[in-house]
Amino acid sequence: MKTALHNEQIINLHMLNREDYQQIFDYAKRGNLQCPDCLGSVKLYLGIEHEPYFYHTQPSNKSCQEAEIPNGSDLTEPEVIERNGFIMPVSRSITLVEASPKTNFKKAVTVKNIPVFINQEFNKNQVDSSYLTKLLECGIRLDEKQAAAVLYTEGSLLVLAGAGSGKTRVLTARTAYMVIEKEIDPQSIMLVTFTAKAAAEMKERLLQYPFMTRSNVQKIVSGTFHSIFYRILSFHSPQRWNNQKLLNKEWQRLQILKNAGREIHLDEKQFAYDLAIQQISFWKNSLLTPDDIHTKDDWEEKVKYIYQKYEEEKSKKGLFDFDDMLLGCYELFKNEPAILENYQNRFKYFLIDEFQDINKVQFELMKLLATKAGNICAVGDDDQSIYAFRGSNPSYLVDFEKEFPLTTVVKLEQNYRSSHEITASANQVIIQNKKRRAKKMIAQYKNDNYPVLFYPYDEEEEATMLITDIQEKIKHGFMPEDFAILYRTHSSSRAVFERLAASSLPFKLDQDAESFYDRFIVRTFLAFMRMAIDEENHSALKELLPSLFVKTSLLQDLKADSILNDRSLLECLCHIKTGFAFQEGKLKKAVPIIRSLKEIPPLKAIEKIEQEIGLNDFINKRGNEGNKLEKGSDDVRDLKVAAKNFTSIADFLNHADHMRAMNKEIKNLNKSNPRAITLSTIHRSKGLEYKNVYIIGAVDGNLPHDHALEEYRNGDASSLEEERRLMYVAMTRAKDYLYISFLQKRRGRKAYPSRFLSSLINKRGSGQ
Ligand SMILES: Nc1ncnc2c1ncn2[C@@H]1O[C@H](COP(=O)(O)OP(=O)(O)OP(=O)(O)O)[C@@H](O)[C@H]1O
């Protein structure tokens, strides 16, 4: 059904402006739409599988007729007027829409452009081994390549493990084989994982192997690089490496850097300290002291200066950061050969997971320890290297044989996770990267569920469409834990969070994911609106003062003025003495503008704050515009998209407060709920798998991110390749169903499908 009644007026989906679909969806949700025929309540379907249509919420007694669209030859645009935000034909009839049909909706398409599936019987153990037979008896099956990697224990081994190829299975089966079958002392095995969670999972899985006892598992030295090397350091000098001296909070490090920055007059608000912190960590992990650095530009020169000062300050106070744990151990081994030898004699076998994410200091440490015994097994996938910003470098994996010339290489190319349709699509994306080791994932099965590419109008509709899809699937038997919604940066998840929060679906999100409405620039805009509806709002005033370049210390004067002269806090801004006539003039002008905000919808209010109060200046200074990933100006665009749904600022503010509270509640409630939909950045989803995966915001500027596109335009393709790997990681999390959203508008601007996927849409494929 393409028509419905709203306030006695016909709404026809063929006539509706594309951007109004969401609003109609919301009207329907509130019960404000009727069937033009039986006047029963109808809703709007806005999902992925079908084009939008109205449907009865209760079965209708009548067999309702569709309000027909004339089948005329008149395809000229009808005369239209705008009413209640909707475009309506001027001469319309209630039951008949006199207009030419125009379908604004772009239907979802499926990926078809992939090779046919060839059924291959790979999962047979062709290697004759009693160990493999024992494993099979316990239900643990290894394919030929996996078996080869498990049984090869002496010498250096590189396991190139494609996504979903069972590297965790290989690492655990190999460790169990060494301990149980080869009777290798578990204390001589070092098993390094990328996260503490992975280490715990590895131990848990090891216990499932025949004859592996808890005591054996506990004897294996396993953990992250940081945990293992920190244990070594604190054993040798517990005073120096006392964890009380660890700078474990980012603000602690920032404070030292900002103090150093003041010496060279760096503007605290404008200088991108968060990037500087990353750059310093990158240098440290690359074993570069300030003296080794040849700066590329003025920015790096400044970062180098504060890096030097940061190191001096730390050593003066005996403090250390996470990077120092690895550097400290590296220095210990270099300076104390006897200690190094001791560890070289103790550890005989090294297994390193996620080798593609290793950085220089980690690589050098492993080399120091492992070269003597020579039994090193590195497992990784260069296509899943996504931590370059932390100093990770896939070239240690790509060029592994240069450092360990007698290496045996085993390629695991069978993908046990995803269907052929998903695997082949992901292959097609990743082969376009130039810097990689050639390999190809081969799926074990096909299910005819081709990845779906869908075209929401904007972020709001994207959220609605995928929640509709999830609800439909749950009705058909899927569980909430079968779903993951993945995004490039956390800020892209605002609309999805809001839609999920309004539904009854359980969902979980990263513990460090702050609410969109808690972001600094967003809070500032909201403070203006709060002040407009409550002129005595003390905390809102405090929050907005910096954006007017008024010192918060003047807050006391404002309060005193308010009491003494009996005027509202907002009014007091007109009388405040800042010492600058120009600024006082601006404040006088700002007050009536702030007051006027309460009369207008929130979207208009945001524009007014930007343009008439002049917040753009403030955003330029304080909005982290120097940042690569998260800029204040982008937050303002996101805020406008969110505000579009509201007609009054009071409602919008209530909504924002509710969402902030929900963010905290959801994080507490579903922290460890295994029965929940996962909302996650792509980075955090690594290593995980779900039956259904939705990748949202797959458009140029987001994935690939703008910063990578800019670097590519300047001749450096490495970030773009890393972004493509992110897309690959996201796609390969899906087992059975994969949905990718091509927003038509992102942050209020026209958006274009991610260039990474053009080979899946166009027959001829694409370049970078
Ligand atoms: N030989 C096998 N036969 C059947 N299933 C297997 C086999 N090996 C692994 N699997 C299954 O394949 C899936 C992927 O395995 P695993 O999580 O170990 O992959 P991975 O290589 O670590 O993936 P990624 O690197 O993409 O995170 C798991 O569900 C695992 O149980």
CATH superfamily of the largest domain: P-loop containing nucleotide triphosphate hydrolases
SS element count, helices: 31
Q: If strands are numbered along the chain, what order do they take across the biggest sheet?
A: 7-16-21-20-17-19-18
Rounded mean pLDDT is 89
Question: What share of residues is helical?
Answer: 40-55%
Keywords: ATP-binding, DNA-binding, Helicase, Hydrolase, Isomerase, Nucleotide-binding
InterPro entries: DExx_box_DNA_helicase_dom_sf (IPR013986), DNA_helicase_UvrD-like_C (IPR014017), DNA_helicase_UvrD/REP (IPR000212), P-loop_NTPase (IPR027417), UvrD-like_ATP-bd (IPR014016)
Protein name: DNA 3'-5' helicase
Binding site for ATP: 161-168
Features of the shown structure:
alpha/beta; 6-stranded parallel β-sheet; about 775 residues; 5 domains; Rossmann fold; binds adenosine-5'-triphosphate; 7-stranded mixed β-sheet; Arc Repressor Mutant, subunit A
